[in-house]
Amino acid sequence: MSFRKFIRQAGESGDLIKIDRPVSTSYELANVAHALDGRPVLFENIVEHPGWRVCAGPCSDRRYFSMDLGINVDELLPYLARALTQPKLPPLVNHGPCQEVVLEDFNLYDLPILLHLPQDAGYYVASNVAIIKDPDLGRNMCYHRLLRLDERRFAARIVERRGTATALSKTDGDLPIAICIGVSLATHLAASMSPPPGIDELSVAHALSPTPLVKCLTIDLEVPADAEIVLEGRITRQSVSEGPFMDLTETMDIIRQQPVIEIDLITHRRDPIFHALLPGGLEHKLLMGMPREPTIFAEVNKDVICTGAIITPGGASWLHAIVQIDKRGPEDSKKAIEAAFRGHGSLKHVWVVDTDIDIYDPTAVEWAMATRFQADRDLIIYPDQPGSSLDPSGTHIPGKKSRTAKMGLDCTIPWGADAEKFQKGQYALVDLDNYIRSPDK
């Protein structure tokens, strides 16, 4: 469903919080949204931008994705994995709500872009999905945080050796780009999933939920027809300083020389709703981490029987994973560890557990480590590996891939051991109403 349909549904379910008192985009809105992190919040009175509404937190809980997609929470992983392997080409429509209002004469200062933290370089858009076309691989959708520079320009953080950077390296002159704000939860998931090169993320989005597209008006790109706002522009060959800005790990990212994007046209829906994503918040973490779970799940299943995979919030929803396997041989845990690192290249630490361990319960995983793991036998260390630029403890040299040490922990029952020795005792269930009287009885 569209971004605003989800907001309406969240209101009907009682999950949406509405705030109608005046709120400023300079720090205040971010601070209030942070205090309510985990709930969708609709700000209906923006001090500097009358007529605009801002929504924060629509992607801040797995339950909201299941609500939007019409499935149970425990069905999300196989559902995402299926969409990744069975994308569906979205239809192209002649007209879309995202083009109800067309602005050739505009000013980026008229958009309710947030200033999040005193340490930030300025006002940032963190919620957008960007669409470009690679000359060889075709359409690509991803995320680029955007620092507003002036009335028509942004500085964009473009990660090296990823889709947009690769397309830029193949292109002479400017690279057309469409920046979409206020897209469906399915589109956000697809933009986060990083399928193999040549797989169209918008087709993954359409496999998750109907995602019709409409042609941009000034560039040869297609965008979700029900997006709230679309900025049509070009990635230029100019570069400026970008950063600092708080990243996924809740630490401040460094200053880099990054490309400048020039905006040529803005289109939006009537009565538009701006999506404000908090850097380092639950929404940021889930959109980064959860879409990596299907790739880990699929890769591990190539070698062993994988029954679950989760990226953990304690690992900044990027650096840590728990993998659950149905162990059938002495080497299965090691195979699962190696496959998990292939499934998510930025992964730093991975725990492998048996099927009796609830991977969504950190206490259960820690219990498995405490009772089934021996460091001299079950710890695997991989020194000096390609790592994540988001890890402040890694080695980062400008222009080169970040490096880190990686670790896998086999927290499964040792192969050949007496399994009963490693099982928890189980108390029988009782009906407490038979033993405890309520105060009114």
CATH A-level architecture of the domain at 287-415: 3-Layer(aba) Sandwich
Main pleated-sheet profile: 9 strands, antiparallel
Q: What's the CATH class label of the domain at 287-415?
A: Alpha Beta
Q: Give the class from helix and strand content and strand pairing.
A: alpha+beta
Helical amount? 10-25%
CATH topology call of the domain at 287-415: UbiD C-terminal domain-like
Task: Give the termini separation.
Answer: 47 Å
From the alpha-carbon coordinates, what is the Rg to the nearest angstrom?
23 Å
What would the average pLDDT be, to the nearest integer? Answer: 95
Number of strands: 23
- Name the CATH homologous superfamily of the domain at 287-415: UbiD C-terminal domain-like
> What proportion strand?
25-35%
Q: What are the segments in which pLDDT stays under 50 over at least 5 consecutive residues? A: none
Number of helices: 12
Instruction: Write down the overall geometry.
Output: globular
